[in-house]
Amino acid sequence: MKDLAADLDRRRAEHLYRHRRVLDGVQGPVLRVDGRELVAFCSNDYLGLAADPRLVEAMQRGAARYGAGSGAAHLVSGHSAAHHALEEELAAFVQRPRALLFSTGYMANLGVLSALLGRGDKVLEDRLNHASLLDGGLLSGARLRRYAHGDADAAAFALAESRGETLLATDGVFSMDGDLAPLPGLAAACTRHVAWLMVDDAHGLGVIGEGGRGSVSHFGLGLDDVPILMGTLGKAFGSFGAFVAGSQDLVETLIQRARPYIYTTASPPAVAEATREALRIVQAEEWRRERLRALVGRFRAGVQALGLPLGDSPTPIQPVLLGESARALRWSEALERHGLLVTAIRPPTVPTGGARLRVTLSAAHSEAQVDRLVDALAAIVRDERP
């Protein structure tokens, strides 16, 4: 039997041990964490909608109409009018014939890959894809091959060597680096070699592209280029859940074959009502994306002036690259002493030697809060000098 205590001790010694924090109150730029108020730069609430009173009111109305829970899976008695309306509105938003709700993005990725692939098939994935895409590839039983991060030529070479049913899966915006996948090159290669292209746009939808339609829209691509699109609703939309959008046949196939969809209780209809309100706001309030872009530029200018290594990211995900896990933890703890909450990201979430502070910005942050973070980083740089 595996010695669990020894394994935990090893993780502590390697600075890889993870701790939960207890939050009290609503999500926002300032959080009450373990009884202390901290300015948070680690949330994925990119547009500042998680605590928007309009979402809260929509959820309250939904709870009054539908109750607290859905009661069963979508295919039994859990698929409410709220769920159905949200699917139709999401499909219209991403300009696809159909959309299908899943309880989480992780389940959506597992469901798509295991429904469409099996033994004898092949799945190609970017080396830095989210764990859910990698796990979905493994669970599918297909042969999994990974190509160099962001390298469309390497992906095309791998596709040229593939035989039989092949699916290429990639993040649209990479969750730890904030950079964009080379979707035009990947789409062209998949078209040339008759392969599926699946994009997980969890960190792109709501943030980039025309009207916040994500990385696929950002590059001017459509359904013919990217037949499978997955998006989450707990980040820029400030709510919870996920969806897969594509053709009529794709969605019907997932309803019939995606086990995480078939065998999971549907999310509460009240959550769907809140998400419908978020979707309306995302499309109507372009100022949120404009403000977010301005804050990203302000932060990058400040950090670059300090000479710190910063990832090449145009998105609200701004990694400050520190290398060693112990150093990332030390900097995170120092920022907390300055009243700032920034999480240290360490292996295996990122490659060995790639530990970083994953700074995330929100439209709800103020310029003064961003400047405070830059000033705190400057103080750490001064303290670290011999």
State the helical fraction.
40-55%
Rounded mean pLDDT is: 95
Which topology of the largest domain does CATH recognise? Answer: Aspartate Aminotransferase, domain 2
Number of helices: 15
Compressed to H and E, one letter per element, the order equals HEEEHHHEHEHEHEHEHEEHHHHEHEEEH
Rg, alpha carbons: 21 Å
The domain count comes to: 2
- In which order are the strands of the major sheet placed? 4-10-9-8-7-5-6
**By CATH's scheme, which homologous superfamily of the largest domain applies?**
Type I PLP-dependent aspartate aminotransferase-like (Major domain)
Compact summary:
The protein has helices spanning 4-13, 53-66, 74-78, 81-93, 105-116, 131-140, 152-161, 183-192, 215-218, 248-257, 259-262, 269-284, 287-305, 325-337, 367-384; strands at residues 23-24, 30-33, 36-40, 98-102, 122-126, 143-147, 166-171, 196-200, 228-232, 242-246, 317-323, 340-341, 344-345, 355-360. It has 386 residues and is of the alpha/beta class. Strands 4-10-9-8-7-5-6 form a seven-stranded mixed sheet, sandwiched between helices. The chain has a four-stranded mixed sheet with strand order 1-2-3-12.
Description:
The chain is an alpha/beta fold. It is built from 15 helices and 14 strands. The strands form three sheets. Strands 4-10-9-8-7-5-6 form a seven-stranded mixed β-sheet, with helices on both faces. The chain has a four-stranded mixed β-sheet with strand order 1-2-3-12. The longest helix has 19 residues, at 287-305. The radius of gyration is 21 Å and the shape is globular. The N and C termini lie far apart (47 Å). The model has no long low-confidence stretch (mean pLDDT 95).
